[in-house]
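tool_call predict_complex ligand=zinc ion
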Amino acid sequence: MLSFGCRTTHPSFRKQQKMTAAHTHDHLTLDEVAASCRERGLRFTDIRRQVMGILLNSEKPLGAYAILEQMTGDGSPAQPPKVYRALDFLVGNGFAHKIATQSTFTACAHPGQPHTPTFLICKSCDSVTEAEIPSSPIQEAAKATGFKVEGAVLEAEGICPDCA
Ligand SMILES: [Zn+2]
Ligand SMILES: [Zn+2]
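tool_result ok
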């Protein structure tokens, strides 16, 4: 269970980028991820922080190599395995999700509440929205059988309102 709230503060790491009003990650900040890690006894290493910051700054989900490219800008080239391990950490702890059909990663848009990440993917403009659903069919089915779900992501392809 995550324990950060929904403050709307704008962290300083975003200062180099203009944010749009429709940005879906405004309610999760690096500070909140750091605080959550502290509470849960998780190590928020430099590389994990960098990767999380890149995901929070991105309008769209990013592939591992797109993340890697952004990390080499500060003079310390990052190695792919390190980025993958950081992504594993962020996904495993609910700070980010993997979108399997695109092999991309995105910051969680609904932190602080247990949920099955549910993505609506537009085939036309590639936009991805994390939908808010209180309970997923997977969780319901698992509950009925006593199966303990450790990871599940729902993905739906279609046409977004902007493209319709
Ligand atoms: Zn989420
Ligand atoms: Zn679209």
